[in-house]
Fold this sequence. Notes:
The complex is a heterodimer of chains A (171) and B (568). With 171 residues, chain A is of the alpha/beta class.
Amino acid sequence: MTDNILEYGMRIVVLGVGNILMSDEGVGVHAVTDLSRRFQIPDEVEVIDGGTSGMDCLDRIAEADLLLIADCMRSKDKAPGTITRMADDEINAWFKTKISPHQVGLSDVLAACCFHGISPKRVVLIGVQPASFETSMELTPQVAAVLPKVVDTLVTELAAFGVALRPRQAA
Amino acid sequence: MSKRITIDPITRIEGHLRIDVEVDGGKVKKAWSSGQMWRGVELILLGRDPRDAWAITQRICGVCTTVHAITSVRAVENALNLEVPVNAQFIRNMIASAHAIHDHIVHFYHLSALDWVDVTSALKADPDKASALAESLSDWPMNSKHVMRQTQEKLKTFVTSGQLGPFANGYWGHPAMKLSPEVNLLAVAHYLQALEAQRHANKIVTILGSKSPHIQNLAVGGVANPIDTNSQSNLTIERLLAVKEHMDALGDFIRKVYLPDVGAIGAFYADWTKYGAGVTNYISTPDFPTDSKGTQFLVPGGHVPDGDLKQYKPFTQFGDAYLRDGVEESVKHAWYTYSKPGPLHPYQGETTPHYTDFEDDGKYSWLKAPTFYGKRAQVGPLANVLCGLAAGHQPTIGYATTMLDTVSSLLGSKVGPEILHSTIGRHAARAIRCGVMQDVLQQSWQMLIDNIGKGDTTTFNKPTFPKGEVMGFGMHEAPRGLLSHWTVIKDGKIANYQCVVPSTWNAGPRDETDVIGPYEASLMDNPIADAEQPLEVLRTVHSFDPCLACAVHVVDEEAGSAVSVKAL
């Protein structure tokens, strides 16, 4: 299916970030976990549960052709569960205002990549507006309800980049 | 006239730490350290299977994942009196020491060097002179004129692109920046090389822990790495040889770059050996066990009262009674309430939030205030290095001597370990400990190979949970210092769980008797050249390697400007 991509050595990283101990804060991690559960992940795509780490992920983000990030994203006037897409330059601007609690780690990593000349070629961020950061390992109903849509959005992004994921066979 | 400065947040990594200082006559006269997030992980763990606690606690923080995982399994093993096969100890030791190396390098170069290094000044450096200086300090091959020129070019491109990223918050041109353009260039070159070096440490954790950033291989009773010298999927000789390559590369970087750099920066900022001592009552835990019971260790730890090495009292084993019986936590100045008066021992610990506003004389932090036999204690690499020196631990003495010799020769006068009780001394101690960690990594690797060679491939002892109540605590000398998890287990389920983390020891607020904590004490009398740019406060606080995600938890925070100044 993806022979010609492999030929060119394309490398895509899907990175879920967030703290799964804080309800909706962990939506990015839940999204990539679900992605791996629902779809077969081809060799050129690496799915990472990044948690709230920073530098630990540098190695794998470096020089990726596409870095696709799933994260919780707090903005003022949006309803819980709203999905927002940002890409490339928009993300740099996003990092300059304080929205995500783990932007610091992630933006440091991206800046370090940039300084080192090993930036990912494209960066796309799929953000989900949280309803709650309560201490809990469950998502709130509002955010849990959009989780399948978040996963579909990731799949669409990958497809737009030329990688079609196949669903896993139902067990 | 005195001024009140508020810095929020103060960390460059995840976590919210707020520091308030009152400055009078150009010096800090009062200080408050406040954790701005609530940690509720203890509540999530109640009623769960103790065998799952490590996987949950490693989610507390993105930086300290493995250390919480290791401490958690040790707590449950201590409660069950369960021995751990030595192979599992060696594998855990390698993961923990590689993680510590990663953490120390990243902390120095990527999170705190910018408090001392003026990146923009490096643009004015003479690259040939920078190279000559670097080559006088060590024979690291990446100190050449060519490398220095290349670094300066890269920096030029980066600065003119306007995307300063991690450098954007620096205090460039601040009067407290003292390094020459050449030293600044050297530091920037090593900042970049450190990014490479940390990858080696991360690779080791990934190979042994199966996955990074969240390791998968731990288990109460050992590790889940089946050792099989023939199978591809298990821990094979090939994988162990790959670990060795990364390990050797790290050793070169630590000895030839990190240690000399800290020595040089320390010598140029010798005035900072006079500030920041704060609390000189130190505790640290022995770690890197080499027997199944946890009574023999590669690195010692214990209690150094009043900074006096002669009064050193070691902790001798996992579950050590002198450590166990000395710890209490007060919430008099923290946003919690207890159901009974006074500070509580962690086994009786309670996590009931009670938020007030920020009250200077009342409650002002989500951190509790821990004490050791009623006194505040400083934890961290400095505490660990002092214990090593007191105990006659050869690797610690060796690296400390190298460090102090570098500083002495650059200063032109002899300095001893007394300079370590300071802001810059904490950085020196961290570099010294990083050298020790490299030795631990090498030794543990060799011990594992030798033990496998004897035909022992055991990595796991199955735990059994008794009816009724048992309790235990796990201790680990984490990169930021003594970490302990305390658990009460009832009929095989968690009935209480408390994490007493290094940043709680150091960053905690005033205690039951209103005594200030180590961060607060270390800020006293720090000079402040410019209240609008309180770089000196950052220097002292960052020297502790603050990381509060584990000390506390998140709350909505749309902070505007990080620094606010108010005339009093």
